[in-house]
Design goal:
DNA primase DNAg catalytic core, N-terminal domain, 16 strands, Dna Topoisomerase Vi A Subunit, Chain: A, domain 2, alpha+beta, globular, 5 domains, binds zinc ion
Length: 586
């Protein structure tokens, strides 16, 4: 995200009053601390749109649009972030700044530089341990998966020895503070005042490195039965998994025609070993727009090569839509017998794996297949249901593309091509249809994720108001693996943390101005919360627990559904573990 100098943004925002600007679009009347009017973003008769002049935020209690003045202009005038800033600058007669040079930015950079240095030193430490006699079990573990010393070095793999303070001692001796190590995700705050311990113990380490060859964070895999199988660095001031891809650092300067997107670190490494050197992995999240843009910087086409069972899931399909929407050509590799790329490449070799690319499906063909999931095409009801869904998808396509898929749908449903054509022409676009192309992304994504929930909004409010609550929340979220519901909120929280680390007060309007709409809305809601915050840390704890409960409930439901198809003891024991964890949370 482009950034303007904070002092310049502050001046711009101080001159751009949200109340004055919003008044150009709707009639606002004061009531209490706010101004109220009919929402300019949705049609209504009674006012649910509010502007809070104190915090310079707007929020609609009807459609949940919200944010600061920049978001308002972006949304209202349909402008990009940069153009919205230009629009505001022009409005108040300010010149655009030439150079970004700002004290706070410098300080933040200095903090980040320290964290980069700490992560680099940690990566070297882990790698040396792997290569030393101490790393013998880890070497054997990797050797069993076909990974030799040369590959381990190429990927900078490492080993975190057992024990609570190996890395801590090593890095504090090099002058890093405990606070820095905690901030970088390398150490974890202990219960006791000032106490902390190594984040990764007795695990194989996969450093996550960006395109500038900087180590941002780590994935750590257990070699035994410990759970979780993978521990990953949570969001830190230098690392946000939504903005990064594993092994993208190896793609710089390679000029490949395409990238292969896989799910796991081991998939990337096994493929590399087999001679397929253009694989990257998403870092355990559904694909994001930032990742799509990152890929687009390198290649015009991306092959998706996920495990059979995860490829057809809605979350995956949404991710693929995000790639397509950024203008990438998306193809889906289907691996026979539901094998994952790691197994397949090790068993049959790289050549054989690459031959699957020739049979890869277009995104639309893949979606048409996925729509059959859960339907019985041997019944008339099933066929009819499929025809409707397939036609809803086809109706979003250009006529020339429709032509291509109509025979397939006709064959599957037994309906004539003509009927299907008619159905494609008349089917109204289904709102919130996640399979369809994203014409209406904003509205859809809001429906799918249901937006930020109450706990999340109160938590944000706590984090903004209290640095104790902020530190506590970031810690616990990393520990429980909880994330915010929308992309920019993690960024916002990391930024709060960075500002807090240098002992400053966050400039919320400035921070907010650079965030995507969804995140700005949630923060708008957080700042609009009227409740008196008596004990932010305690409230934060309640919110985190509520979020952890909701997350566990979601996972438990998913696993319960999975158990119906897959009764393996692995799934069952994971299920029991989650149920126990849920019970302990009350
Ligand atoms: Zn509204």
């Amino acid at each position: 995200m482009a950034r303007f100098p904070d002092h310049w943004m502050s001046e711009l925002l101080s001159k751009s009053d949200i109340a004055a600007i919003a008044s150009e679009y709707t009639l606002l009347k004061p009531k209490g601390k706010r101004l109220w009017g009919c929402c300019p973003f949705h049609s209504e008769k009674t006012p649910s749109f509010s502007v809070t002049p104190d915090s310079q935020m707007y929020y609609c209690f009807g459609c949940h649009a919200g944010g600061g003045v920049v978001q308002f202009v972006m949304e209202m005038e349909k402008l990009s972030y940069i153009d919205a800033i230009k629009y505001l600058a022009q409005r108040v007669g300010m010149e655009l700044p030439e150079e970004v040079d700002d004290d706070k930015l410098r300080k933040e950079r200095a903090v980040k530089e320290r964290l980069y240095a700490a992560c680099k030193a940690a990566a070297m430490f882990y790698h040396e341990k792997l290569m030393s006699p101490e790393g013998k079990t880890a070497q054997q573990y990797l050797a069993k998966r076909g990974i030799d010393g040369a590959i381990a070095t190429k990927f900078g793999l490492g080993y975190a020895p057992p024990g609570w303070d190996n890395l801590l001692k090593h890095l504090t001796a090099q002058g890093f503070s405990k606070k820095e190590l905690i901030s970088a995700g390398l150490a974890v705050q202990g219960q006791k005042e000032g106490g902390c311990y190594d984040a990764y113990r007795d695990r194989v380490i996969f450093p996550i490195i960006n395109t500038y060859k900087r180590v941002l964070g780590f994935g750590a895999r257990t070699m035994g039965e410990d759970t979780p199988k993978y521990l990953n660095t949570g969001d830190t001031p230098i690392f946000n998994k939504r903005n990064n891809l594993y092994a993208i650092n190896l793609q710089k300067g390679e000029h490949n025609a395409d990238l292969i997107m896989v799910e796991g670190y081991m998939d990337v490494i096994s493929l590399y070993k087999a001679g397929v050197k253009n694989a990257v992995a998403s870092l355990g999240t559904a694909l994001t727009q930032q990742q799509a843009r990152l890929i687009k910087r390198f290649v015009p086409r991306v092959y998706i090569s996920y495990d059979g069972d995860s490829a057809g899931q809605n979350a995956t399909l949404r991710g693929l839509d995000i790639l397509a929407k950024e203008g990438l050509e998306v193809r889906v590799i289907v691996i026979p017998n539901g094998m994952d790329p790691d197994d397949y490449a090790r068993k049959f070799g790289g050549e054989e794996y690459l031959s699957l690319k020739d049979k890869a499906m277009t995104l639309n063909a893949f979606k048409l297949d996925s729509l059959m999931n859960g339907l019985d095409l041997n019944t008339a009801d099933g066929r009819e249901e499929y025809a409707k869904k397939a036609c809803a998808l086809l109706s979003e396509l250009q006529p020339v593309e429709q032509e291509r898929y109509i025979p397939t749908v006709s064959r599957r449903t037994g309906l004539s091509a003509e009927t299907i054509q008619r159905q494609c022409g008349v089917t109204p676009r289904v709102e919130g249809n996640i399979i369809g192309n994203n014409r209406n992304t904003k509205q859809k994504s809001r429906e799918i994720s249901q937006g930020p929930n109450k706990a999340e909004i109160s938590l944000l409010s706590c984090m903004i108001n209290s640095s104790d609550a902020l530190l506590y929340a970031m810690d616990k979220m990393a520990e429980y693996g909880i994330e915010f519901s929308s992309e920019g909120l993690d960024e916002f929280a990391a930024e709060l943390l960075a500002v807090n680390a240098v002992g400053e007060k966050p400039n919320i309007p400035v921070m907010l101005s650079a965030l995507p709409a969804e995140a700005a809305e949630a923060i708008g809601a957080a700042l609009s919360a009227d409740e008196q915050m008596i004990d932010p840390a305690a409230t934060a704890e309640d919110c985190i627990n509520a979020m952890a409960r909701a997350q566990l409930d979601r996972k438990i439901t998913e696993l319960a559904a999975q158990m119906e198809q897959d009764g393996s003891s692995e799934v069952r024991s994971e299920y029991m573990r989650l149920v126990r964890a849920r019970a302990s949370l009350k």
